[in-house]
Design brief:
single chain; 215 residues; alpha+beta; 7-stranded antiparallel sheet; two-stranded antiparallel ribbon; 9 helices; 37% helix; 15% strand; globular
Length: 215
């Protein structure tokens, strides 16, 4: 049996939530949780995401929620099935594993872009009007580390300190950190994520901004 990947980014995210008193929920894993080597919707399940689901159930990290690996309508497989019904490539090409509570903002892996070890990049999907997706991390654990850095910045934001609401928004406020993710940047320079933009200006501008930062 393959060894479960280490998840330092997830561990840092948990520690930051504890340190700054962000909402944190860490239920135990469910028996039905996918495992490394499993397939969902005919595609390989990301090994790092499998390791997450072997550790946790329906977890919460501040405003970020992890889909539960159960059979209820908002759980991992049923929810992805519904999101795929309209045929939007942003959902058919990705596997949504988390979302921002109260918003139509999702995070998913992209199986077709897996590297030689099966590690899949993560995209941010905005489904408010015409859906679009933008690349934000080269792996699931890198995504959790990025969200950790975001919460650290929120905790230091004067607006959040004084009013409980931050002017910083994920992932837009972390373009400098995302540009340091060289495996992701190599894919962006190669145009690997262009098919997910849906020709939406916000997505096109985001990719171009990252490309400009890497030149």
């Amino acid at each position: 049996m393959p060894t479960a990947p280490l998840l330092p980014g997830l561990d840092r995210l948990i520690a930051v939530c504890q340190r700054h008193s962000f909402p944190l929920k860490l239920p135990p894993p469910m028996p039905s949780a996918p495992r490394q080597g499993d397939t969902l919707f005919g595609e390989s399940f990301d090994p790092q995401l499998a390791a997450v689901y072997q550790r946790l159930g329906e977890a919460e990290f501040g405003p970020l929620s992890l889909c539960r690996a159960g059979s209820e309508w908002m759980d991992l497989v049923p929810w992805n099935g519904r999101l795929r019904e309209d045929g939007a490539v942003q959902f058919t090409a990705s596997l949504i594993f988390s979302w921002e509570k109260g918003f139509s903002l999702y995070y998913g892996t992209v199986p077709r872009l897996a590297d030689a070890q099966g590690i899949q990049p993560v995209v941010h999907i905005d489904d408010y009007e015409a859906p679009y997706a933008v690349p934000i991390a080269s792996s699931v654990d890198r995504f959790f580390d990025l969200y950790c850095r975001y919460l650290e910045r929120v905790a230091a934001d004067p607006e959040y300190i004084h009013h409980g609401v931050s002017v910083l928004h994920f992932p837009w406020a972390l373009v400098d950190l995302i540009a340091r993710d060289e495996p992701l940047m190599a894919r962006i320079r190669a145009g690997s994520f262009d098919f997910l933009t849906n020709n939406q200006r916000a997505a096109i501008d985001w990719i171009q901004k990252l490309r400009d930062m890497s030149t």
